[in-house]
Design brief:
The protein has 695 residues and is of the alpha+beta class. It is built from 23 helices and 19 strands. Bound molecules: adenosine-5'-diphosphate and magnesium ion (MG). The site of magnesium ion (MG) has 3 residues, from β11.
């Protein structure tokens, strides 16, 4: 039996360890500097480094690394050992304050979107003391931000930290108007991570999974997810063993892994941690994804984090549960029993309504990726249209305010399930709406468009900045209002906001075609593909937003778009090449071998004086040649797209020419696969992959 409280955080240099190892005064000064966001003195850094090194060595570390999050979307690290040669031929283990605070990795091979020429390769990493250092594989990991020699930011953490700081300031301005004092406003995040597990031996036989993380071919199996028997189903022993080991490893790192369950699609699962401050949550999510992959391998499975590994069954997302609270523990998105009279809640709600409406295209842009394109708008994920679900209670409150009516709160209702045997269940003010991309879920908003393999940093950077913009707008309007007039002023402001932005509120089923039509009438944007969504990120209004709040420079925003275009194009390029490879090396030879055997059989039948039935031979032959033709067409489109130098134009070519050619090839390839006899199948089928572990 594991002792979870003892295990939890045992590999992190957390506050308890700091308190144990630092003089009380040093610890207090350190805390105060971090709280205020002030740079550490050299002396303090040296003391922290000393304590950290001691702790790391006691825990078996030989190396340290500055851990950062470049624009690749994953993490990066370069290990240095602690050794320092001594005069007598021995070594000492050394680690100074300077080693802790700053690093200088070569930055030349990280994506910069044209911000920096290769010859200006110098990059800097700077310690982020708000995220704990931790131990992994005998190495001390120090979370850091990453920038270039010229000061351009090259990572995902720095803008997030900036957005947290501006949001704190703006939120405090609004709270101040209401007479609510707080040390700090904290942005919270609880991301639910979806993933698939497949058998490793099968995975190895699928080039598409190996190279691209998703299946590019695969005929539909007789059974998919239609029986709805996987969601919350009994967790199979092999998967359970994986989950147990994963939890233990995450707990050691101080990651509060909490909920685990089977998801809707066969072989699909979910893990949700307890929410934490957004900076930590983003770091933790990166580690969670990494550990999911590495621990799956130990169990002879492969964890697929791609947004759409399989056609025809659900894809995976990362539900972004977001809220604001004060350092004293007040949740600013908690409507309480009576939202109508809760000025604080109403103002923060207004900020979110206005912001999500005005910057819906930006929010969509932050989740744009080739993988997520297969998910958004497919019938299991929220559509590419951003809308907010509020539920009937909150919508009722806003409608009443808009019509200058009083609203009578319903409060919590108790539901009796059975006599006295089962305790009464308290009913929430809002039901769930699984189809909404941005849903109010009681005391937080859940943004469901984020893709399962994406970093959470970008979405939350923008979400924080958008809400900052609107809170500042609110503060500008209300500052100086006499207390006696505040209630009236708040209602008037909320009324204006709701009247101007109610189009973003949609409580119905977001999966229907009627909603797509209705959203169009309301003028909501519906950017179905990554190239379309990315084009919005560079629009003036959206660049102005982040420049105004000091999150990015204009050049940084545009370079980030460039990186995303490149990533999209490269992804499609690899996918198309993989399909062609599978066509020529797997599918065609399989069809040909089968045809050869069938032809030989026909000859045998004829030699017996019988008339061979060639209907099936003909069918297979025709299917194979249709597939080959589609392959040739894809090759042509791919060659054309590869010639285009401008990334944006290339993106359009990949989207409008290459992708449809891939879809055509997939269709004809799957038709061939469906005709092949078992022994001719060139790779494990959907049935093998989806039900292999779970049967
Ligand atoms: P669901 O029923 O939506 O699938 P889960 O339990 O799977 O719920 O996940 C909900 C996530 O929301 C968890 O990570 C949880 O910690 C997080 N969460 C709960 N309350 C808040 C809050 N106030 N702010 C941010 N996240 C929260
Ligand atoms: Mg969940």
């Amino acid at each position: 039996m594991v002792n979870v409280p003892k295990l939890f955080g045992s590999l992190t240099f957390n506050e308890r360890v700091m308190k144990d190892r630092l003089p009380a005064k040093t610890f207090k000064t350190f805390r105060a500097m971090v709280e205020k966001g002030l740079p550490l003195t050299r002396e303090l850094a040296d003391m922290m480094a000393y304590a950290m090194k001691d702790w790391a060595l006691e825990n078996g570390c030989t190396h340290f690394t500055h851990w950062f999050q470049p624009m690749t979307g994953i993490t990066a690290e370069k290990h240095d050992s602690f050794i320092e040669p001594a005069a007598d031929g021995r070594v000492i283990m050394d680690f100074s304050g300077k080693d802790l605070i700053q690093g200088e990795p070569d930055a030349s091979s990280f994506p910069s979107g044209g911000l920096r020429a290769t010859f200006e390769a110098r990059g800097y990493t700077a310690w982020d003391p708000t995220s704990y250092a931790f131990i992994k594989d005998s190495c001390l990991y120090i979370p850091t931000a990453f920038c270039s020699y010229t000061g351009d930011i090259l990572d995902k953490k720095t803008p997030l930290l900036r957005s947290i700081a501006v949001l704190d300031k703006a939120a405090k301005r609004v709270l101040d108007i209401l007479g609510i004092a707080t040390e700090k406003v904290i942005t919270n995040l609880g991301p639910e991570q979806e993933y698939f597990l497949v058998d490793k031996a099968m995975w190895e036989k699928r080039k598409d999974l190996v190279y691209t993380g998703r299946t590019l071919f695969g005929a539909k199996p007789p059974k998919g997810q239609e029986m709805e028997d996987h969601y919350f189903g009994v967790i199979k022993p092999r998967v359970k063993a994986f989950m147990e080991e994963l939890n233990e490893e995450l707990w050691k790192l101080g990651i509060p892994a909490k909920t685990e369950h089977n998801e809707v699609a066969p072989a699909q699962h979910e893990l949700a941690p307890v929410y934490t401050s957004v900076n930590l949550a983003c770091d933790y999510n990166q580690l969670t994804m990494e550990y999911m992959k590495r621990i799956a391998l130990k169990h002879n499975m492969v964890c697929l984090l791609h947004e759409k590994p399989f056609d025809g069954v659900n894809g995976s997302g990362k539900h972004n549960n977001w809220s604001l609270s004060t350092a004293e523990g007040r949740n600013l998105l908690d409507p309480g029993e009576d939202a109508y009279h809760n000025n604080q809640f109403l103002l923060f709600l207004a900020a979110i309504l206005k912001g999500v409406d005005e910057y819906q295209d930006v929010l969509r842009g932050t989740v744009a990726s080739a993988g997520n394109d297969h998910r958004l708008g497919a019938n299991e994920a929220p559509p590419a249209i951003v809308s907010i679900f509020l539920g009937s209670e909150l919508t009722g409150v806003l409608e009443a305010i808009a019509e200058d009516r009083e609203y009578k709160a319903h409060g919590h209702i108790q539901m009796k399930l059975s006599g006295n045997t089962i305790a009464a269940v308290s009913k929430d003010n809002t039901d769930r709406n699984r189809t909404s991309p941005f849903a109010f879920t009681g005391n937080k908003f859940e943004f469901r468009m984020v893709g399962s393999q994406a970093s959470l940093a970008c979405t939350n950077t923008y979400l924080n900045t958008i809400v900052t913009e609107e809170l500042e707008w609110i503060a500008d309007k209300l500052e100086g209002t006499p207390e006696a007039e505040l209630d009236k002023a708040v209602k008037a402001l909320v009324k204006d906001v709701y009247l101007a932005h109610s189009r973003i509120v949609f409580n119905g089923n977001g999966y229907t075609d009627e909603w797509v039509e209705e959203a169009k009438k309301r003028g909501l944007s519906n950017n179905k593909s990554t190239p379309e969504a990315l084009a919005c990120m560079g629009a003036k209004k959206n660049v102005d937003l982040v420049v105004k709040h000091g999150i990015f420079t204009k050049a940084e925003v545009l370079s980030r778009c460039e990186i995303q275009y490149e990533l999209y194009n490269k992804t499609l390029n690899i996918e198309a090449l993989t399909m062609l490879d599978m066509l020529h090396k797997d599918l065609l030879p399989a069809a040909e071998t089968y045809l050869k055997d069938l032809a030989a059989m026909a000859v045998d039948v004829k030699s017996l004086g019988l008339k061979p039935d060639t209907v099936f031979i003909k069918k297979l032959q025709e299917a194979a040649s249709a597939m080959y033709k589609d392959g040739t067409a894809l090759e042509k489109e791919l060659q054309k797209a590869e010639q285009i130098e401008d990334q944006k134009k290339a993106g359009t070519a990949y989207l409008t020419k290459v992708l449809p050619a891939m879809e055509a090839l997939r269709k004809s390839g799957d038709a061939v696969e469906a005709l092949l006899g078992q022994k001719y199948l060139p790779y494990p089928t959907y049935g093998d992959l989806l039900f292999g572990i779970n049967c």
